[in-house]
Amino acid sequence: MNRPSNLDALLQPRPPSPLQEIQDERFERHGVRLLLKRDDLVHPELPGNKWRKLAPNLRAALAGGHERLVTFGGAYSNHLRATAAAGRLLGMPTVGIVRGDELAGRPLNDSLARCAADGMRLHFVSRSEYRRKAEPRELARLVDAAGAEGAYVVPEGGSNALALGGCAELGRELRGAADVVAVACGTGGTLAGLAAGLAPGQRALGVPVLAGGFLAAEIRSLQAAAFGGPAGEWTLAEDFHHGGYARVPAELEAFAADFGSRHGVPVERIYVAKLLWALAELTASGTFPRGTTLAAVVTGRP
Fold this sequence. Notes:
single chain, alpha/beta, 6-stranded mixed beta sheet, 12 helices
């Protein structure tokens, strides 16, 4: 493979992403200042944490001479879409192992159709098989069954030790800018790296978009793999998942539409809307003392 190894030259990202102050009475009446870290603007097709987590893995794949990428995700995975886009931009074939073999005989939803249009070959597996993908033997079997032998394996959500290094850079960009830096969480990798990059005295706040309460242990495990142990201060705000991943009830849809209309910011529904909703609710309940500056990381676009 004769592919250039300078990823920035190939994909042309635009970090650091801008910081935008938002004037919103739902925060101002409680003496809380709200900033948006517009990481959705860091790359047109690999926005926010997708760039932060994928870039170190893409560099490793290119440096190792890998011919293709294989990764994992559900039917609405932003990570699958970003990996497919990266593969198209790099001229590198991609394989997506998708949770749910019942989807194989159905028309593709918009998310998976975008992956396919970007050249990703989709391989559907049962949910029980998918749950075991962290087991080395099962991982190897899944990759072989997908016809992706020798491919560079990017984990679900892009979250691994390499990715945490990329997300720590996000934290370093926010040093001194806010007291609390909040981000929506799927697999926990962005929060784990973000916390490590913040300055002492700053805190990272994660808003899980999935139910289950499993994320704290996963974040600790990721930080141990990446940094050798705990790194930075972080907490989780549970119970703002609105029924689970990809669930957008009418009240959340109305909130997101209103926020976007007020402030001219496109609000992605699965992650960013839940994050902003949680911050508004926590502010109203007095969780943040008056004088607090919040920075919300906008990790993607609709």
